[in-house]
């Protein structure tokens, strides 16, 4: 994968220069600033490529505002180190990209990783040019910080996550299966372990209505689930992947007595860039729930799937 390769290279380069770039006590190490800057720019380029990359100059102009927000926040030495990492990566991949493209028969697919790294470097180089000199475009209120960790990740920060969406549910109990639909909402507190991993925990509440049709009547019984999900999220630039385990309490409109249960779930999502400290995302998830048997209610299995929208607030 292109992005992990750049991040690993950044860590190795920063480790080799640690003595020369060590941060003062209480501040984040310079290598975290380099990695954070690279991840930010890689995410911007990946998003822009997904829309269809055409003319370099205009594509870079399109990304310049968020790029400057990251570059202007990063220490000058982190900007230079990130540029060095990209130069080394381009050399390792056989660049410059124009020459590699000709050598490989004019096939863009053969130079995809090299082209990606070249575009990230071009974005960083242009943003650095605009961040320096008498006509610098950095806002006066945005100062370089040794504690910079990137803007487009949750790395080393605490976030509040509001999520919600629709559900399609298959409930199975006592040999009967009922199909239903509904929705749920959750509020999670997240902690970025690094640029790639985030841990989240919080509360959720949802409800679904099932279609229960017999020869004599049609009913729409409503069931409710309250849950305490624990989520591990793997971030890969614009994409993220989640694994979830949750304890839950199940009850129905007809019988409000609670039955305990467990859930295992997974989700694939795609995120946008932050706007005013909020990163929106959308995804599709699936979960399997088991409601434990009690003297009040038989054991039950619920299979759920649906789309989810989320907002990651870096407060």
Q: If you compute it from the alpha carbons, what radius of gyration comes out, rounded to the nearest whole angstrom?
A: 24 Å
Strand arrangement across the biggest beta sheet: 1-2-3-5-6-7-8-9
Estimate the strand proportion: 35-45%
| Fraction of residues in H or I helices | 25-40%
What is the number of beta strands?
Answer: 9
What is the N-to-C order of secondary-structure elements (H for helix, E for strand)? HHHHHHHEEEEEEEEE
Whole-number mean pLDDT: 90
- Global structural class: alpha+beta
Number of distinct helices: 7
> Describe the biggest sheet?
8 strands, antiparallel, barrel
Oligomer: single chain
Shape: elongated
Which regions have little confidence, pLDDT < 50, spanning 5+ residues? 1-5, 7-30
User: What is the first-to-last residue Cα distance?
Assistant: 31 Å
Features:
32% helix, alpha+beta, elongated, 315 residues, disordered N terminus, 9 strands, eight-stranded antiparallel β-barrel
How would you describe this protein?
- This protein is an alpha+beta fold and 315 residues long.
- It has 7 helices and 9 strands, in the order H-H-H-H-H-H-H-E-E-E-E-E-E-E-E-E.
- The protein has helices spanning 2-16, 18-21, 30-50, 56-73, 76-92, 97-103, 112-131; strands at residues 158-173, 176-192, 197-213, 218-219, 222-236, 239-252, 259-271, 278-291, 300-314.
- An 8-stranded antiparallel β-barrel has the order 1-2-3-5-6-7-8-9.
- A hairpin with an 8-residue loop joins strand 8 and strand 9 (300-314).
- Helix 1 packs across helix 5, helix 3 (30-50) packs across helix 5 and helix 3 (30-50) crosses helix 7 (112-131).
- It is elongated and about 80 Å long.
